[in-house]
Amino acid sequence: MAETTDNATGWTLSTPVSALRGVGPHLAGALEQMGLRTLSDLIRHLPHRHEDEHATETIASLADVPEGAVASAEGVVDACRSVGHGRKGRFEATLSDSTGTIKLTWFNAAWMRGKLPAGTRVRVQGKIKRYGPYLQMTGPKWATLADEDEDEGGGEPTIPRTAAGNGLFSPRSAESADGDAPRLRPVYPATERIPSDRLASLIERAVEAVVDQIEDPVPPAIVEHHRMPTLAEAYRRIHAPADRDEIAGARRRLAFNELLVLQLGVAVKRAHTRLKLRAPRLVASAALLEGIAELLPFEMTAAQKRVTAEITADLARPFPMNRLLQGDVGAGKTAVALHAMLIAQAAGKQAALMAPTALLAEQHHQAIEKMLEGTGVRVGLVTAHRRQDVEAVAGRTLDGNDPSRRVDVVVGTHALLSEKLAFRDLGLAVIDEQHRFGVRQRAALRSAGNESPHVLVMTATPIPRTLSLTLLGDLDVSTIDELPPGRIPVASRVVDPAKAADVYAYAEKRIAAGEQVYVVVPSIEPGEHPDPDAPVLKNVEEFQHELAELLPGRRIAVVHGRLKPEERREVMAAFRRHRSDVLLATTVIEVGVDVPNAAVMIIEHADRFGLSQLHQLRGRIGRGAGTASGGKPLCVFLANPRTDEAKERLAALAATADGFKIAEADLTIRGMGEFFGTRQAGAATLRVARLPEDTELLLLARRDAQQIVEADPELAADGHALLRRVLRQSHRGELNLVEVG
């Protein structure tokens, strides 16, 4: 309790921070910039770590603190001086109390001149060092001691006194400390204007005043079953722990709450889909399935047959399928999708396949049209670059009134979402590389028909289980975990750019043996990624001339995202027919490009690409039954990684070609929020829970959420009213990510 206590009568969680004694407009404004407007905000501002700190009452007792341990001291500055000149000068001070003195030193701290004049009463925190019989702290944190009044002047912060001695330790922590045992000091996300220590003082007072008003949305029976503290007690312990076990228990409870609310949202959506939405029943007879199998130019793998059976069963149900089909590069997802689209067509419905790029849409269209040649199934193509086609499709082709103009299967890009385009009767929507589309785009395609169509989303970026349960939790998941027979494993090498000439000399040998080569660079033209500390990035415009010198006499083609669709198609068709030896490209070839004779890929500046992106690129080679040279398909990552993260990415690629292992490594390296390269709008934010470390807790929350929703699908019971309110407040917009439509 502070010596000058707050008058907390009538305070609630929504009481503004300005009610705290000493928080005037200046400090309140700084807190608001941190998103801290109410006492509730302060309580929910969690420490990002806890430091062991030896609290002492006298400077003399610091002699008993182990060297290197963090300790605190209070005293008066006896003397101070600046040594050296300029910004790199050091500042020294001597702090004393009635029992002794300690030397304080700050390096590169010319700015300290005049900050701690002799006679200033100050509190310092830092690591203890010894020089012979003398004690010293180097670069300690410090704050002047004053009464609990706000410093409106913008000088150094002041620390109010409390009964605990300094305002930085909570009374609870102080009471639980055993003698000179280290105390656990919470360290908060802070700013230069409001350091962690000042926040600790404010948070301590907010917790003391109103933490018991926090309502716990989790039913008491669940809390008791898992032997967890109440929500209010968890917040109290995370801010003022008696020991490390209390920190772990409090964090576990807070993380469980986050995961439970997220899983409740997932479970409610699944229940809504099954109980409220209606979709056409697309029932496939045995004869139809046999006929579709005969259309395919190859026999499906066991894994393809398994997931096809799962999708076929979903299509026959009266509620919308909501399924994720994932499989590594080249696993045969398109054939599975075509199988489902033909079931829809046979039932008199239309099917749409939406791809993330025009190039991929065009390739899907060509492959499907060729496969369905002579069947009478009409296949259309819609891309934004071909406005006349969009208008023609909108005006006639999808209009089922004229059977001769009807299109059964439509392949396209986001242009399929055009308001001018109206599906007659969409029964199935297939979305390829689903993470490249936003929430609203997926929802728009789902709502394109009169009924809710079935939805199949596909990805060649395997999604770790922890993420599929969170970001994509309302989708059923099918996994193709087997590659078609005859695929040759790709060898991977990480090579220093200094040896690039050797790499291209080897590529020349493979070209001479009749094979083709991809060369990937990060940009189209110079100056797209300015970074004065980084090497100049190779780009298509300039590097094609250098490449011609490295591979003299070879036919070099160029493809990138700025080429017109017609030019892109011509370049890719020529490469596929082996009218060029080398394809210099950007990441436009990342997905969907299939050239069986391409056996070598060289990726320049590989450290500038994401892990999953590199894996996707590597998947463009080794797609044939063999190589002309008899050697293994080879992917060379030319890179000189400057960061630990880049080194980890390349090491993971060199270690395995298993997309699922790479996805797990990517999640571990980059974390959940950045797993998809750029964070999607609406991605649920987890502030406490950490994945994949908290996978066990996630599964626990998932099980509890499913049980709750099975008994109460809309959380309408009185006992679930608070859960329902928290769910709406926490994830109203964010949970759209797990809803395909």
Automatic annotation (TrEMBL):
* Database matches in SUPFAM superfamilies: Nucleic acid-binding proteins, P-loop containing nucleoside triphosphate hydrolases
Classify the source by domain of life.
Answer: Bacteria
Q: Which UniProt keywords apply?
A: ATP-binding, DNA damage, DNA repair, DNA-binding, Helicase, Hydrolase, Nucleotide-binding
Residues covered by the Helicase ATP-binding domain: 314-480
A Gene Ontology biological process term:
DNA repair
Could you confirm whether the keyword Amino-acid biosynthesis appears in this record?
Answer: no
Membrane-crossing residues?
Answer: none
One Pfam entry name? RecG_wedge
GO molecular function, a single term: DNA helicase activity
InterPro entries, alphabetically? DEAD/DEAH_box_helicase_dom (IPR011545), Helicase_ATP-bd (IPR014001), Helicase_C-like (IPR001650), NA-bd_OB-fold (IPR012340), P-loop_NTPase (IPR027417), RecG/Mfd (IPR047112), RecG_dom3_C (IPR045562), RecG_wedge (IPR033454)
Record has Zinc as a keyword: no
Question: Which segments constitute the Helicase C-terminal domain?
Answer: 513-673
What segment(s) does the record annotate as region Disordered?
Answer: 146-186
Protein name according to UniProt: Probable DNA 3'-5' helicase RecG
The encoding gene: recG
